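The protein record minuted underneath.
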Amino acid sequence: MIVARRHFLSLAAGVACLPLLSRTAGAQAYPARPVRIVVGYAAGGSADILARLIAQSLSERLKQSLLIENKVGAGGNIAIDTVLRSPPDGHTLLMVTMPSIVTAPLPDNFDLARDSTPIAGAYQAYLVMLAHPSVPTSSLAELIAFAKANPGKLSMASAGNGTAPHLSGELFKIMAGVDILHVPYRGGGPALTDLLGGQVQLMFSNLPTDEYVKAGKLRALAVTTATRVPAMPEIPAIGELVPGYEATVVFGICAPKGTPAEIVATLNTEINASLVTPEIKARLADLGAKELVLSPSAFGKLLTENALKWDSVVRKANIKPG
């Protein structure tokens, strides 16, 4: 079942109707023990980096330990399954990435929209199209021409089937009319390692890679935006050559359905406060990202809008779940 059909808007509307409760005795007791944020991808990836940034700040604000647990595999399904099976007490949270969850069919008839509660947005970022120096092109226009002349010869690494790097690449293939082989990995870190080693030629990355580009180990061909971004003005936007192209990744936090409104409000307030601290804002800028300071309902609506867009890509590219 595709996320776009899971009625995120209904969920968002339900959250919007929750009363604005003060922190009652139950909320004041939260958290009663360490909180874990479950990440569906390998350590070192952007979701993992962000989760650790948030965890460090929340630990200080909530006066409790926050642990990151990487549950890798099945396009993020293992992490989703772990969280949805957990008690709805705010002590087990999920780092959600969009468009990654578009392709996540859940076991035991779980439904991410129905069985989870949006807590807060985190950040939204563009990706960078990277090439290994062995690729015989120096610009995006040359790459498109080479790919059209050599269908299937280039390979494209991703953090896994259905992840943001994968779907960003598939959108590029569809809109640019090129045939590039997709090679999925168990996270962005392992994919980047093989790109650096030349085992694959291309990657749409949301990882910090400036040092590799500056050292000449990788070539940055374009950013996945409609126009150039201030952080990388010398790098063209894919939308300049492929009109209408734009791909970003959204990160945020969800919890199991039934998490008390007081706990949702506490987490939303503290996560939003963390996102605007100078330390995290600076780190997000390094990642080419902007913080998403949103209410739970606004975050749920954003997920819905993204799901509708990426569902179309999944169907056109005939991407299989997981």
